[in-house]
Amino acid sequence: MSSLSIIIPTLNEEKCLGLTLWSLNLLKPSPMEIIVVDGGSEDDTINIAENYDITLITSPTKGRAFQMNDGAKLAKGDYLCFVHADTLVPHDLVTIIEKTLHNEDIAGGGFISLMKGSKNTRWGTSLHNYLKTYYAPFLFRPYLFFFKGLRLLFGDQVIFCRRSDFWQCGGFDANLPIMEDADLCLRLVAYGRICLLNRVVESSDRRVAKLGSLKANIIYLWIGILWGLGVSADYLKKFYAEIR
């Protein structure tokens, strides 16, 4: 039996959630459980989730980090995998993660994120996101990059780790409205390497489609630089509006 718990934070995700849950229910082998943690959706998200064989809870506090921690508290699996509601994963996700974490030198990992829409594949943005996994820790945390195996992963890369390590390092920082995923990597690396697997997940291009490629990539780059320099996440959130 699988030891993987999949956790999905949601907030007004009626456009994407159905396809994501449908694809997760086709995984072979199946995960131990799929937990959807809603942050107070006002659209049809809850009704969509209830149509699938998943565990659905409502978080008392809206916020991705808070919601993912709530899901992790409920999870029974030895391994945790955090999937955004607009992301599609490989059919053998469970096997990939369990095989990777069988290596005790690895504390966690993620996938190459390919940003796609109904009409476009955002190759440039996807390439930048791939490179950012490496250049961000190289520039801002070189010691951890070279000697500890740090890679900075972001939510659309489907972060996974051991449940024990997740709680030992404190889980997601619920006080962070943004960059909670990169922050987790910084603390998780104390328990082993963070790896980027040579497998692809597909994420919605809705932010790039709304803002335009140039503006979106400038915002991504600007946020990354300021975060690396220690600027507070509350300030950075001003540049990262919610887009559904």
Descriptive report:
Helix content is 41%, strand content 20%. By secondary structure, it is α/β, with parallel strands linked by helices. It has one domain (4-239): Spore Coat Polysaccharide Biosynthesis Protein SpsA, Chain A. It contains eleven helices and eight strands. An eight-stranded mixed β-sheet has the order 3-2-1-4-7-6-8-5, with helices on both faces. The longest helix has 18 residues, at 123-140.
Keywords summarizing the entry:
244 residues; alpha/beta; Spore Coat Polysaccharide Biosynthesis Protein SpsA, Chain A; 8-stranded mixed sheet; globular
Structural class, from secondary structure content?
alpha/beta
> Which segments are poorly predicted (pLDDT under 50) over 5 or more consecutive residues?
none
Number of domains: 1
- Tell how many strands the DSSP assignment holds: 8
State the order of secondary-structure elements, H for helix, E for strand: EHEHEHEEHEHHEHHEHHH
Q: Give the CA-CA distance, first to last residue.
A: 35 Å
Please count the helical segments. Answer: 11
The helix fraction, in percent, is 40-55%
What Rg is obtained from the alpha carbons, in whole angstroms? 17 Å
Please report which band the strand proportion falls in: under 5%, 5-15%, 15-25%, 25-35%, 35-45% or over 45%: 15-25%
Describe the biggest sheet?
8 strands, mixed
